[in-house]
Every structure is written in C-alpha cells, then in structure tokens.
Amino acid sequence: DERTDMAQDETKERAKATVLRRDEVERDMKEILGRLNAPGGAGTQQPLVDEEGYPRADVDVIAARNDRHKLARLKSDYDALTDRIQAMLFELHASEKAGKEKEEPIRTMQRKSEADSTPPQPTSGPFAVVEEVQADSPAAEAGLQAGDRILEFGDVRKGMGGDESSRLAAAVQAAENQTLRILLLRTGQVQVTHVVPKKWAGPGTLGCRLKPL
Fold first, then answer.
1. What is the pLDDT of residues 153-169, one digit of tens each?
2. What is the DSSP letter of 47?
C-alpha cells in the first residue's frame, strides 16, 4: 500500500546515503594506509620505539600514532556501516511484494553488497599453514581449520621482507581484543574470516599453531 511504498522509499534513501558515507570512510582509510605504508613510513604494526625504548628517529612518531588511531576508528566505522547497509537491504527485500521486480537502485545496492562480500584476490602466495586449532579458542571461533593456508593475516603477507612469523607474532600481540582480517586458501578457494586475539582458557591469544611455508 501507499504507506509501505513510502517506507520503502525512505529506506532506499537511507541506504544510498549510508553507501556514500561508507565510500568516504574507505577513501580515508586508503589515504592513511598510503601514508603509513609509503617508503620510509611507520607501517601499521611496526614498533614506534627503538631497541632501547626511545621513540624512533626515522619516522614522525606522533603523526604515526595519530594515523593508526584514526585507521582503527575508521575500520570500526566501515564495519558498522556495512552491517547497517545489509540490514536495510534485508528490510527492503522482506517488504517487497511477491513477484514484484526490485527497482534499479535496489538492484545496484544489492550488486555492491555482493561485491563487498566477495573475497579479494590475494596479491601474494601463502606464507603459513594452520597445523592445529584448539577447541573453544579464538581461532576456532573464527572458523580456522587445520590445513588452511594463510595468505594475509591483518597487514602481514608474503613478500614484505624479513620474517613473516615475527611480523605475525607482533601483529597478534598489538591487536589483542581487536579484530584482524584473515585471507586464507581452503581447498583451492580464497576465503575471508576475522579473528579477535584475546586471552582464553588455553595458552596464547589465538589457540592455533601455524607452520611457516
């Protein structure tokens, strides 16, 4: 009826506005990552103090800390906006009349949502394989399985130079109680999951054993 159509139109406009806001957040994230990961930059996980505990002299420590703080906030905003878009799309779909074709703006938003859920293509090969996942651990909650080959773990990936295992350990330690994205290869398929390193009943903050490749 007319009230249903008005409600649908209002939800569509809110969804469009939310998509635009999420695009702005994504652009801001890319800009910050560009600064942090530029040659001579501080990176996103690397320590900001030297071996003696003094602030590094080769980077702007204050600016790096501010960028990392902004990036963490933007990641949280991006995830919240994505959840909001998906909820509105579900609301629109649920209220659609049987047999009625969705209008083009809604189809566009659906295609964008489906594209967002498609795992990105890896830029490098796996650098570690999961050998064991302990029950009730953060890794188990994330759905990791023995045999999964890790392509990206947070910002750690193959070919960045140095020891991936050391960088991975540092990334996990720095992200305790925060969400890390994992890009993995399972039975030939690229998949994405998220893990929150945290204290649990077992040792460490992940509860899985990784073997370097």
1. 988 888 776 677 888 88
2. -
Is residue 143 within 8 Å of residue 193, measured between CB atoms? yes
In degrees rounded to 5, what are phi and psi of residue 8? -65, -40
Contacts of 72 (CB under 8 A, 6+ apart): 178
Q: Decide if 205 contacts 138 (C-beta within 8 A).
A: yes
- 3-class secondary structure, 113: helix
DSSP string, 77-118: HHHHHHHHHHHHHHHHHHHSPTTPPPPHHHHHHHHHHHHHHS
- Residue spans of beta strands (DSSP E) within 125-175: 128-133, 149-153, 156-157
Q: What pTM was estimated for this model as a whole?
A: 0.44
- The 10s digit of each residue's pLDDT in 19-61 is 999 999 999 999 999 989 899 888 888 899 988 889 999 999 9
